[in-house]
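Each record in this resource describes a single protein on a pair of labelled lines. With that in mind, the following record should read easily:

===
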Amino acid sequence: MKIALPTRNGQIDDHFGHCDHYTIMTLNDAKEIIKTEAMDSPEGCGCKSDIAPVLAQMGVKVMLAGNMGQGAVNILTQNGIEVIRGCSGPIDNVAAGWISGHIKDKLITCDHHDCDSHGHDHKHDLKPL
């Protein structure tokens, strides 16, 4: 299983679509992190990028995020990715909190813009961390 965390300077970015990169963590069946990689974030808002299907194709099942608009939530869930909002702090602490069952979705969305669904053609490469 893989989880994704919108990241800036080792912390959960406050807004999913504006992060520096996504940290992708691979967990084994015992929910231990066995691999951590970084994927550059496409430019623009998360709901208007092609990030959701790319993450889904990579096997990401959970997005641990700070905040995001409803359009991004909809696109992620349509691609089979569970969204956990309201996360903050160092990504390792957030991942550990979710793995232990202490982090739940806070149902927070921002509404600073409208999101229409359209894609962009970007290349997404993973880099080991």
About this structure: The first strand starts at residue 2 and ends at 8. The mean pLDDT is 82. The two ends are 18 Å apart (CA to CA).
